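Lab manual, section 2.4: Encoding a predicted structure.

Procedure: take the sequence of the chain (719 residues), apply the prediction step described in section 2.3, and record the output as structure tokens. A sample record is shown.
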Amino acid sequence: MAAAPLAAGLLLGCDAGGPGAQVSESPTPPEADRRPWSQTVHGVTLEDPYHWLKDDSYPQIDDADVLAYLKAENAYFDAVMAPRADLVETLFQEIKARQQEDDAGVPVKEGAYYYQWRFEPGGEYPIWSRWQAADDAGEGPPADAQVILDEPALARTADYFHLGALSVSHGGGLLAYSTDTSGEERFTLRVKDLATGELLPDIIENTQDDPVWVTDDSAFFYTVLDEQWRPYQVRLHTLGAPVADDPVIYEEQDRGFFVGVSLAASKRFVVITTGDHVTSEVRLVPMEEPRRAPTVVAPRRAEHEYSVDHQGDRFVIRTNDTHKNTRLVTAPTDDPSPASWRALVPASDERYLLNYSVFRDFIAVKERIGGVDGIRLLGPDAPPASIEFPESPRALHFGDNAEFNARTLRIEYTSLVTPDTVFDYHLDTGELRPRKVRRIPSGYDRTAYETERLVVTGRDGTGVPVSIVRKRGVPRDGATPLYLYGYGAYGSATMPTFSTTRLSLLDRGFVFAIAHVRGGDELGYHWYEAGKKEARNNTFNDFVDVARHLIAAKYTGKGRIAIVGGSAGGELVGAAVNQAPQLWGAAVAHVPFVDVLNTMMDTSLPLTPLEWPEWGNPIEDKAAFDLIRSYSPYDQLKAGRYPPMLVTAGLNDPRVTYWEPAKYVAKLRTLKQDDNPLLLKTNMGAGHGGKSGRFDSLREVAEEYAFLLWALGADQPPG
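Recorded output:
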């Protein structure tokens, strides 16, 4: 066993510094055991000497060798980064100084109360309060506002803390909330009496998402996870009754489908949705009969996605039944089946209908045209009206819109140079009123930065959008360091949003760029489909082609680009490193999905069946096996020179399990033919998102930035 003694004895050896490193000696990196293991699939024998890093008792992780190796890598990370401790601290203090210590949300009215979250100075987690709407003078919460949930108190003894559900009952007397203290995303739900502050004896383990209260507050619907983290049941819990006796309202048998439960905007129906990444099925339960068997709206069929809400005497349904960019239809309350669907917003090649929000008097539709987000309103007696916003490109989201009869629409807005802004749009006047603009205590001048949007022609002739921000005056001389970010999976767009942390790089002369590669849905649903399954290599090629263009256009130079991505974006980073290692000055892969082939053949893992529509099923499909094997970053590692790399993992991560990045780093150590640093940092008490506190998480960003600045030789004070 080679792993066990490593944490105790890190030896000094050869220079492991990157291009900008000024070190003469560095700790010797850990070396993981190579243990024979193989499997034969489709006539191909796959050798994996690092398979042992998957603990056989997973999800419990107690193998001494595995833990020793991860701790040794953490010790190595600490030792290599120790000379950068001052830089990490400087960056952390810069980033922290941009955070409003006493930040608070815009109050949200629901029923008889206004609700608000707020941070106390120095607090890692928010406090949730409410006050009577009748007492609100529009000047903020009164001094006697009631604290309904104190997250700092709940998190006091936890190394990791994540609030899941926060659901107040219809009458306002009860609060159901759930917490996760491991990062495993298995939540424990409790109920609090808001009049007395006492916790009820009702405790539900192993759940996710917000529960849905029945009309008289005597019970609520909730989801249950199976052993593989899949939400597979919806149950109904009556307060005071044994949880073991809770009836199952719906159970999903398909192991590739996840179940969720929500409340329609009208509050007249419980909506049970089940689906994978490309197919969905919705069931309805009337609130006046919460124990009635759910009614299916449209039976599932492959690649038909739809969602359902309720307004007055009709259902409003978003569906891709006739076009991948989706349309909006309505159906009468007494017959929501497809036979009764009538078009409200037709599908379009140019207009991508992303989301909608239903109110008593209108419907708000979020759409994307040419990669730019917009919102338009549909009223019963008026033509569709689009809301005007000041910038393009931009990112928009519906905010907290809790009241069905509201005459305002809350919108969250941001751009690469505009801090997060909360607007209320007033239907009666057409006024777009700012309610909150994120304050940056250390100061921020948006005119000091400039943005642009490029379209880069890729190797197959496709135009790939790129969003860029930099400080004014930064030269285009081919020597500027550039931070290139990408994701490109699941139809999830990477929109041009503001970042307070990014300023530490921009102020040091970096250019920041987002490559809107295929696999996201920035340009419509077709953009997603053009980067998945058989077309997956388009995502990686787009990213590399964007980098080559930015070099040719002298935004940066070869070896001056830091590439960064997380999860599926970490897969993108790994594939880009394999395809063009000489382009990159540094690479950071956060919780990276790099062992794609092995994971997609391991049905014991939480997400594997759900992921087959995204990546393909290599167990049953030889073509999918060959394709995934051809790009899987772990499988495609070869002997050669690699850029400085930082890889992160979460021990309790149920999405990208810790052994993927661990195996990747262990294998790469045996193949790299350079002295550039290769670091693995595993959060031993966290999951997919890293540390949970607002400042603790910022320190991890400071570590990433310090690594990149060191690797690129740009670790000088901002000027």
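Check your result against the sample. Residues 597 and 629 are 6 Å apart (CA to CA).
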